[in-house]
Amino acid sequence: MSEQAQDPRERSEQQQEQPRVYTPDFLTDLFRNPLDQGYADAAKRKALTGEPRGWQATGIRVVSALTLVVVGFLLVVAYRQTMAEEPSRSQARAGLVEQIEQRQAATDDLQRDADQLRDEVSRQRDAVLDDRDAARLRDQEAAAGLARVRGDGVEVRLDDAPDAVDAVTGAGKPDLGRVLDRDLQEVANALWSAGAEAISINDQRLTATSTIRAAGSAILVDFRPVNRPYVVRAIGPDEMEDDFKDSATARLFRALVEDEGMSFSVRGVDDLTLPAASDPQLRYATPSPTATPTPRTTEGGK
Q1: Structural Rg of the chain based on CA atoms
Q2: Where is the composition biased (Low complexity) (predicted)?
Q3: pTM to 2 decimals?
Q4: Cβ(188)–Cβ(213) below 8 Å
Q5: Is 200 within 8 Å of 192 (Cβ atoms)?
Q6: pLDDT digit string, tens, across residues 213-236
Q7: CA–CA gap between residue 265 and residue 112 (Å, rounded)
Q8: Residue-range domains of the chain with CATH
């Protein structure tokens, strides 16, 4: 005989007497215990030991004060060393600037002497040659950039934007408002394309061997520095001004004026005088007197 069925009420009372097992999920446990276990343990230790005693608190304050004093002392020493070295750096910089100015003045004097000697050579040469040969030679020198030229032309003026140079360091900022060496190259090429017969940049005459390049933040024309504002003068036909204004280069710089604040202007000028360029240092390839040609052989020894 099977056991009698248990009364449902008794079974319900037994289930109520058994403890319920509850397993919390991660989020519930996180909200219930928001502090890390390390914080909880530190709070328990603080509750057991209490606040630091008087001598402990005083020791902590003394250590903190000593640390601040040491850090302050190190800062003062570093500042004094920096200020002590500042005069020597300023003196060295002033010496370099003075040397550059002296060398620049000496270069200008030599250039004036060279111009005077060139004029003297031209006068002596014209006295020897007849008028036709002398005129032809002068035309060739003017075309090569080795003689002064006069005529009507165009003046293009460029300058950096007002905020293109750092006010503290004086260094140029890497933005589009600063005139670069390639900008002067593009202006010169556009003037040549517009029919220019002679061009100078800040009174530095351009020739077939001229270079426009950058050295750090400076721009060199034939290895001589030019300073802002940059003035490009060109002698050419009457329509040269209009052709240059319609060029893609002029449109680009007008856009830079509107967007970046660069200074750019073009105007026609009557009776321009462009200086002569320095004599170019040309090199010629010559065959070696001891070289002998090596015969070439084809397939089969012929």
Answers
A1: 43
A2: 286-302
A3: 0.58
A4: no
A5: no
A6: 998 888 999 888 898 999 999 999
A7: 30
A8: 150-274 (3.30.70.1880)
